[in-house]
Specification:
The chain is mainly α and about 70 residues long. Helices cover about 60% and strands about 0% of the residues. It has one domain: Arc Repressor Mutant, subunit A, CATH 1.10.10. α2 packs across α4. The longest helix is centred in the middle third of the chain and has 14 residues. The radius of gyration is 11 Å and the shape is globular.
């Protein structure tokens, strides 16, 4: 999975909860085909790319599932 786009394009906004920002970023990346639809998102890889812990990643997965 090539998520190099995360390091270059993700800038946190402190007025919006981090899990919502990550979910929005991933959604937009899928829509813009920077992440392929159906591509497996690996929690550990996203943690390294976003430089954050597991909890926000897991919460963003819950948001994406809905």
């Amino acid at each position: 999975m090539d998520l190099s786009v995360v390091k270059r394009e993700f800038t946190p906004r402190y007025s919006v909860p981090l899990p919502e920002q990550i979910a929005e970023f991933v959604t937009n990346a899928i829509i813009e085909r920077r992440i392929e639809s159906g591509q497996q998102l690996v929690e550990n890889e996203l943690q390294r790319k976003f430089c954050i812990g597991r909890a926000p990643i897991r919460e963003s997965f819950r948001i994406l599932e809905t």
